[in-house]
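Lab manual, section 2.4: Encoding a predicted structure.

Procedure: take the sequence of the chain (445 residues), apply the prediction step described in section 2.3, and record the output as structure tokens. A sample record is shown.
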Amino acid sequence: MVLGFVFMMVAAVTAVHLYLWHRLVRSTTRPGRLRRALTWVLAGLGVLVVVTFVGSRMEAGHWLAWPGYLWLAIMFYLLVFLLVLEAPRAVAWAVMRRGARRAGAEARVLETVPAGDGVAVRAPDGAAPDGDVADGRDVTDGGAAAGGGGGASGGGEASGAATEPAPELSRRLFLGRATAAVAGVSAIGTVGYGVRTALGDPVIEPVKVTLPHLDQRLNGLRFAVVSDIHLGPLTGRAHTERIVRMINSLRPDVVTIVGDLVDGTVAELGPLARPLRDLESRYGAFFVTGNHEYYTSKGPGEWIEELDRLGVRSLRNERVEIRHQGGVLDLAGVNDVNGATMDDGPDFAKALGGRDTSRSTVLLAHQPVQVAEAARHGVDLQLSGHTHGGQIAPFNLLVPLQQPVVSGLATVDGVQVYVTRGAGFWGPPVRVGAPPEITLLELRS
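Recorded output:
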């Protein structure tokens, strides 16, 4: 499976870079030293992408993350903008060729083509018609012979010029360079905006959710929801400190971390997670695993223990009671679906079975797709992450192929689902169309 993924990744990266070479190098340069140099540069960047995916997962290769992932983002948007420009580029090329043919036809009409009976079909500007002498030369029969010879000679030169590709090549280069410039400026500008968004403060999203069967005494219970923090080689301790500070400023009753906290081991990233011990809430902080917790070399177990030391309780296919103003709410959590590969998958029956069904239940499940099973167990509200809201548009258009909700509040199979965009990023430090988010969710009866 891993080899299959690597093969597909290498094939995709190679295909994209071949297309970029065609549009950014071949279409903008003449054969020669510059084209060869740019070809090697683009080939090197393609290798960098592949090496980054592998090397940045190891501590010794963390230095690859910034250049590799930034080029990955620029590469992606170059591909997007160049594909968008294909249609107008084709139209512009057709217009330019039609204009060139029309100009060539007009030029041929304006040439003097003597007739065999001594009458010129058409004389160029400045020539005298009807056999008159212009600039001292006869253009009747006698002159026609000389003119014919000159025409033949001129025809030979015209034929030679016709084989010279310089005019068409110039048009191709102009169009290629213009297209490359527009795509390049657009891609770099978009990535620059995306980096600023991804590394900036998360947006506080206030959300009110009405649960029809909620005990009125629980009215106003507030959850701080955060997911996809993705502590890793591109984030520092300040990333966690900012998230903790913003959550504490909301004064929540419950803090929920809905998976994908880390992209590495405790040995690598433990110091980055330590600010989580400063989380403040009335009823505690809770965590469920995401798919990335199962991608670490040692699995999620060591992070479960580390979070416990930091005062964050992991809900591993289990539930707790949240008692508020005399009312009781069941807060349950299930493992991510990827845990099944390590015999640690979600167990809804264990987490939700045997409870008092008259109580409202809030379920923490990393992936929105888990709502199908949640509906079968009578859950009222599911809190999820995973999608990043698409993170980099237009990926938000592809997320629905896998998940029922991209971001925000929706109802699926009778269960309300809130999907947060996440407070971090994965891969490129870029967010376009999906700013990072911390949610303040308030329950209403």
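Check your result against the sample. The first helix runs from residue 2 to 26.
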